[in-house]
Amino acid sequence: MVTAQRRRRARRALSAAAAAVVALALAACTAGSTAVDPSPGPGGGVRTDVTVAVAAEPVNLDFTTTSGAAIPQLLMNNVYETLVKIDQDGAVVPLLATSWDVSEDRTRYTFHLREGVTFSDGSAFDAADVVASFDRVRTDWLNAIKGKMDVVARTEKVDDHTVRVTLDRPSNAWLANLGTSVGAIFPSDLDGVDLRTTAIGTGPYTILSVRPGDRIVLAGRPEYWGGPAPLTTITVRYLSDPTAAVNALRAGDVDMLFNAASGDQVRQLDALGTFQVVEGTSTGDVLLSFNNRVPPFDDVRVRRAFAYAVDRQAVMDTASAGYGTQVVAMVTPQDPYCEDLTGVYPFDPARARALLAEAGQQDLQVTFDVPNLAYATTAAELVASQLADVGVRVRIVTDEFPAVWLDKVFTRHDFQMSVIQHSEARDLLTVFSHDYYLGYDDSVVAPLAAAADAGSPQEYVDGMRRVARQIVDDAGGIVLYLAPTLIVADPALTGIQPNAVTESMDLTRLAWR
Amino acid sequence: MRTRVAWLVGQVAATLAVASVLVFLVLRVLPGDAAVVALGVNATPDALAQWRADHGTDRPLIAQYASWMGGLLRADFGTSFVTGRELTPLILDRVQVTLIIVGLGMLLALLVAVPLGTLAAVTHRSATGTLIAGASQVGVAVPNFLVGVLLVSFVAVRARWLPAGGWVPPAVDMAEFWRHVVLPSVALGTVQAAIITRYVRSAVLEVMREDFLRTARAAGHTRGSALVRHGLRNAGVPIVTVVGVQLAAMLVGAVVVERVFVVPGLGSLLVDAVQQRDLQAVQSMVMVLVVLVVAVNFVVDLLYTVLDPRLRVVGR
């Protein structure tokens, strides 16, 4: 417990430091931060291949038209690269841009591009590719995350290695968004390329083969700009059943599990002492969501009562074997505006009862729509029993995921309470926007958020903290815990990057000792 | 003989037609919007509308059914709702995997069951016979997945003799193919061996009580040679029946075994497709399974005719 707290405090300090780095970098109008150090060449180890088990398989390779975390998880950083990268501490650091200047009014960014970079099809990377990629977001993307580039008014080529981006208004979020899939750089000429089956990026790996339902094999690029990729092949096996994944690891069929085993299984593997277990943070907030549009959750007192009634630490201990981070707002330790708000709703059943009485809800019954996912059903049962302790009768309805849950809860808003993991990075404003399935009344926070985005970096941090505090105060939904990134691997594997700061599973530094 | 075959073919066609309508309609009752599942939570309304138009899910059911059937008759399963890939090569690929496991499993089962069942019948009054009968009784009660789980934990995880799962096509690497195919086939075959052993035993016991066997022995045959020359052929009809029924059951049982061993066969593809509401894929795959089951029954019916001339009359 003590160590967990210390670790949390350390993380917090780290994120504060990261925020300071971002702030400094922006304030100085140049990216003075340290350059990325892509993995050095082969480490001289015997093996140059690695097999990684992952749970969710991409349905195709095109995240511009298909949403779902599995596609950018595999492709970002490994195959596709961006101008800037979000590093393990949440700081924005150079990748395909070596540096950038920001105009006085912070609406004009001039990116200086790395030279000598090639795409996996052999063509050279230059300013035209950046312009085409940014323009395509507006014209060709069908994924709603394209909205993250709405603030861009114009992208121009200054010369072959310089690009100027003009924004409609200053935006703090935009530069960080460039480090996610929406900022991926494609070759300017994509004629005849089906992105669903072909991925052409500047990253250290390229897609070698796809066997649907089984595996995707990546091949290391010897001509990668940062030096040859450390591995010749990375085989990503898709094992949706955690037990099968654990068996594969123990049988020696795979070398690393990336979030492919349950918390309990990771504890057991850890106890064996034959594997390294790496716990990092993720961007996956497990959210107890309320339908703010319908009774009883249109009453803030009821929502707050539920927040007091749930012992979130106990839920995390049960549903995730204690792995994870306690946060109550949808803010992760790597977000620059991270602030500890867990004290707002301590576990306090008496207070919950009092609030329910105040709201006139002594004999409350609610329906709890739970997707048939292991963490969700486990968490839901505990939440239900804790709510029963404060006099709320909970009727659990299991919804098949994804089909039924998406249709009923997400699309038709036909629910009172639900629980689901929201995996996207920096999704506080998405989830707590008026149109989203929670139906949170964002009339107070929307202007705050807009002002924060357009303000100075310090105003951004302060403003977003205010937004997060307001959302927590309104108890539009309660984050039960921030899911961990749990990696179990052969002890000889190095270069594991534990923190999932964007949707990417960054394998670029993976190598054998 | 020819009329009987024509009669059987007619039955097959009717069965397939009815099955196709049922499969198509049942899937339409499932809750969940395929477009939302395919495109996910970040899909724009434009993208959803586009998707529905592209995949024809906004058309009347009768039109959807007609175009599906039209495709099937040309052996074209259409394209997957979710991946956008052509289904025909994918399904054929997966069917192959499933058939390999089922085929090897059945071969294994027969290699064990026929001699063991016959032995159990011949020695049914001795300890050996009782032991085999008892062991097969236990075997029948064990579910496929349990055998699979036990094999994985002992042979793969503890001993590390064979991989815990996965699949390598024979064309890619023959040695690896065999390493991967052994455990799932054994898991599927073990239970079948137990089941078929019991049927072989009782069929042979039945035949041993027949008059013609007594006649054969009176004509100078030993019990063993009488059984081989006259008995087994007669025991063949019930054995072929049970093998047919079990083959059909194995096609379905393979779903579970494929899950345990992470084998990319038809079963695991089917489960994924149902979860993703990839209706185009699901209905085509179910039809493939229906065709396989019907084909097995057809072959069994034909074999009867070969094994037992008395059945060569229409209507019997």
From TrEMBL, chain A:
What are its GO cellular component terms?
A: ATP-binding cassette (ABC) transporter complex; periplasmic space
- Entries under Pfam families matching the protein: SBP_bac_5 (PF00496)
The coiled-coil regions, if any, are: none
Segments crossing the lipid bilayer: none
**Signal peptide positions on this chain:** 1-27
Query: Known PROSITE patterns for this protein?
Result: PROKAR_LIPOPROTEIN
One GO term under biological process is: peptide transport
Residue ranges constituting the Solute-binding protein family domain according to the UniProt record: 92-422
Q: Which UniProt keywords apply?
A: Signal
GO MF annotation terms: peptide transmembrane transporter activity
SUPFAM superfamilies documented for this protein: Periplasmic binding protein-like II
Name of the protein described by the UniProt record: ABC transporter substrate-binding protein
TrEMBL record, chain B:
Q: Transmembrane region positions?
A: 7-27, 97-119, 131-157, 177-200, 239-262, 282-307
Taxonomically, what lineage is the organism? Bacteria, Bacillati, Actinomycetota, Actinomycetes, Micrococcales
> What is this entry's stated membrane topology?
Multi-pass membrane protein
Q: Where does this chain mainly localize?
A: membrane
Keywords of this entry:
Cell membrane, Membrane, Transmembrane, Transmembrane helix, Transport
**Source species, domain of life:** Bacteria
Write down the species.
Answer: Xylanimonas protaetiae
**A GO term for molecular function:** dipeptide transmembrane transporter activity
- Please give the family membership noted in the entry: Belongs to the binding-protein-dependent transport system permease family.
Which Gene3D superfamilies does UniProt cross-reference here?
A: MetI-like
Q: Where in the cell is it found?
A: Cell membrane
The protein's name in its UniProt record: ABC transporter permease
Q: Which PANTHER family match?
A: DIPEPTIDE TRANSPORT SYSTEM PERMEASE PROTEIN DPPB-RELATED
Q: Where is the ABC transmembrane type-1 domain?
A: 95-300
